[in-house]
Amino acid sequence: MPTYGVAAVCGVVGLARSSYYHQPQGCAEAKPFERALLKEAGRHPSEGSRRLSARLQRQPRWAHTSRERVRAAMRRLQITRKIRRKRHRTTNSQHGFARYPNLVKGLQPDHPHQVWVGDLTVIMLADGSEVYLAILMDVFTRRIVGWALGRDVTHALPLTALRRALKIASPEIHHSDQGMQYADDDYTQVLTKRDIQISMAAVGKAWENGYAERVIGTIKQEEVYLSEYRDYAEAKAQLGHFIAAVYNRKRIHSALGYLTPSEFEAQWRTRSGKKTLRKKRSKSVQKN
Fold it and tell me: Within a 10 A sphere around the Cβ of 233, how many other Cβ atoms?
């Protein structure tokens, strides 16, 4: 996982460098807590009080730490998130390809690879040029199952991400916006040949692809906005590390009970395996 200097981290979270080294006044017991909080905030400078409190609660000493205590300490230390967001349009829904209905509206996935969602975003390099990132995420586990980085935003980019993801598994439903990259015949044919149902958000209703929008936002806040990629190769290397080693294996999600995608999927498979074993034993007893 990449590390950042004190000056860089303090600049992102709006914290004066002197505050990092400041020893807070008060009882002796408060000092280790605030040092622990600053350490977690330095490791995860884009996270707020909710996730930082969950991270501290993983440590035995701070297992009963409340979010209110973390929030109060953050105010006292003047830790705030000040991340500038600039939206770039990557979706072009004006095309002649087939349209598909929204199959996931109101659906609550209950197992892995039930629904994958896809989206695209643009990333600026240090020299002012642009590269594009395509991702596919499993809604149930929040795991990013496929991604690709490219210099242009044709259908070939998400198609590369899709083919990489299909080496892991096949979803029951593939959901995206109605952008031409996802509606392109070459893309949809790969899905139909695998008997994967195609689902799309309505035009102008980005929230119908909210899961994908949120994961893109997370990648931007927790990796892209904290980095300055010198070139395409550096962007690809750092994004690949973040997705595989940080997002999938270290980033906790409130929707997953503050587990990482890898932890949540492993726990689900363990529980699922035990249920299957119990059913087999029950059938065996009934036969005898």
Answer: 10
